[in-house]
Specification:
Shape: globular
Strand content: under 5%
Radius of gyration: 16 Å
Distance between the termini: 28 Å
Low-confidence stretches: none
Helix content: over 70%
């Protein structure tokens, strides 16, 4: 019960953070690649907010959010290595993405078993 409530809180917080990326997408003149990435995160945020109502029904969305966060963190580690001027910025992003991924994996709902009739 506590685990499910914690997962719902994490889903709402992360979902709102991802949806909030709509502001820079609309308000700033960003690089096209960054615009595309933000649009994917905004969409993922909407689905995470939907998942908060029924986490076990959205296991694959939760898993995608977790593993894509790890993949994003891995890319940012490489970028931090090559772009010294932005290293701190990238490493803060890596930390945030790893925290999101770990929280989602740790709280992810268990796979439901089908009962035999």
């Amino acid at each position: 019960m506590i685990r499910e409530r914690a997962l719902k809180v994490v889903l709402v917080v992360v979902g709102l953070l991802f949806v909030a990326m709509a502001y820079p997408l609309v308000a700033m003149r960003l690089d096209e690649a960054l615009q595309m990435m933000l649009s994917v995160y905004i969409t993922l945020g909407i689905f995470l907010l939907l998942a908060a109502r029924n986490p076990s029904g959205y296991r694959s969305v939760i898993a995608f959010a977790a593993w894509s966060s790890f993949a994003h963190a891995a890319v940012m580690v490489v970028q931090a290595y090559y772009d010294v001027a932005e290293r701190v910025h990238f490493l803060v992003g890596v930390l945030a993405m790893v925290i999101i991924g770990v929280a989602l994996i740790a709280l992810s709902p268990a796979k439901s078993r089908l009962t035999e009739a």
